[in-house]
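Exercise 3.2. Students should predict the tertiary structure of the chain below and write it as structure tokens, then compare their answer with the key that follows.

Predict this chain's 3D structure.
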Amino acid sequence: MKGLILSGGKGTRLYPLTFTSAKQLIPVANMPVLFRVIQTIRDAGIVDIGIVIGDTGAEIRNAVGDGSAWGVRITYIPQEAPLGLAHAVKISQPFLGDDKFVMFLGDNVIQGGIHALIRQFDGSRYNSQIVLTRVKEAQHYGVAVLRPDGSIERLVEKPKVPPSDLALVGIYMFDASVFKAVNAIQPSARGELEITDAIQWLVTAGYSVFPYIHKGWWVDTGKPIDMLEANSLVLDELTPAILGSIDAESTVDSRVTIGAGAQIINSVVRGPTIIGENTRIVNSYVGPFTSIHHDCVVENAEIERSIVLEHARIADVPARIQDSLIGRRATITRATSRPAAYKLTLGDYSAVGLV
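Answer key:
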């Protein structure tokens, strides 16, 4: 089998962070989501992986390289425009050939990996297998209706009145019959070739399309609140390790990971939390479900349930920071000049809550 990762989206719902970085490279528990997807596919025994790239392709190429860091072979597949998931499959046919493959959205995080799923599909005669999970607000997703025997009866894209609570997770498996489907369907009202239409074509044409119902957690990291949720869930599964230094005045609990060269000085750090390499935490409190990346400084400040990207600096902040995404090389400090006022330099689509 081969792997296909879709990594061409612009990530508009994560502005302003994604003005300067591909959304798939924003880290969860200090690891870019795309890296986590590559590891998940590799751990399922797949080493030939294609990555569909768009406007942020140069950045993704630079970050991922040839795949040797993970023991895989990466082939890049440029997509001229965001013309839909089925279009991404269509243009990937020269790479995929006649092999079965798993398609994974590059901004999805799933619990437990996909090894069992891949093993089931590879040993079956299914033409396609799709991953479903039960959700509370199915109207926001593609929804599947199952027959009594458990096979797929039909798919509905973002229905106003959902016929079931089974939503499509961004993981799909196909054999070469999918190319008939993607070449047969027409663009949707939004001008894209929809993967739900391609799967429905397979169902209507009599191909075997079966579901795999995932019982663990799954997060599409498309929005800031989803990034924080994914970060919390992944942090909760980490095996803690202390590679940096902790002074005698600090308190660090057993669920904290501290990277090499990091320093915890006169501070309290409560996990699950990860502190990146060469980061300094001084006279501060870092609360649960926080990821602070490499080469950051947190001094005389408090922060919890947040994601802080590399080279950020947070110092002398009078109120606790929480539920926040703080970008690369961002600086948050307390102004000392008069008159006392908030002084902000914010990019487009920024969001700030002041007290």
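Discussion points: The chain has two domains: 2-235, 245-333. Helices lie at 33-43, 57-64, 85-91, 93-96, 115-122, 178-184, 195-204, 224-235.
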